[in-house]
Amino acid sequence: MEPVAADLLMALASGTAGAAGQNLWERLRALVQRPPDRQPDAVQDDGEPEVGALVGALDDDASDEQRAARLAEGLALRARQDPAFAEALAQWRREAEQLSGASAGGGTQHQEISGGTQHNVVFTRDVHGSINLG
């Protein structure tokens, strides 16, 4: 499973995604609090971060990219060890990405202008409000 994008986690933790984003963040909290349903032959990784604590840490500082990246890694690790969690996380991720418009690749962009002369070019992403170019 591809990790959840850290910027998506930060957006939901910060509340910038509105009420629907807050609901998704609370659903992630509930998901990580479920007891793991590990397969009998699954190997427990002693270095596994406690994802519940990582969610709380991102709550404390939603702009901390390192915390968000650690949470994304912790979610991916738990998903590899717990098939039921992986399925629930995949569903959660689809809904979160639809809400935020984020891509599975972490919301990266490529913008290019070529040829001729351009005036008043504006590149933007994730605008939550009006833009006036007058």
Please give a structural write-up:
There is one protein chain. The chain has 134 residues and is mostly helical. It is built from 5 helices and no strands. Helix 1 packs across helix 4 (65-81). Residues 97-121 are annotated as: Disordered.
Low-confidence stretches: 102-106
Helix/strand order: HHHHH
How does the overall form come out from the CA principal axes? elongated
Number of DSSP strand runs: 0
Question: Residue-averaged pLDDT, rounded?
Answer: 79
In DSSP terms (H or I, runs of 4 or more residues), the helix count works out at 5
Q: Structural class of the helix and strand makeup?
A: mainly alpha
Distance between the termini: 45 Å
Radius of gyration over all CA atoms, rounded = 18 Å
> How is the main sheet built?
none
Strand content: under 5%
| Helix share bin | 40-55%
Biased composition (Polar residues): 109-121
Region (Disordered): 97-121
What is the gist of this entry?
The chain is mainly alpha-helical. 52% of the residues lie in helices and 0% in strands. The chain is elongated.
Give the SSE map.
Blueprint: H1 6-14, H2 18-33, H3 51-60, H4 65-81, H5 83-100
Helix pairs in contact: 1-2, 1-4, 2-5, 3-4, 4-5
Features:
single chain, 134 residues, mainly alpha, 5 helices
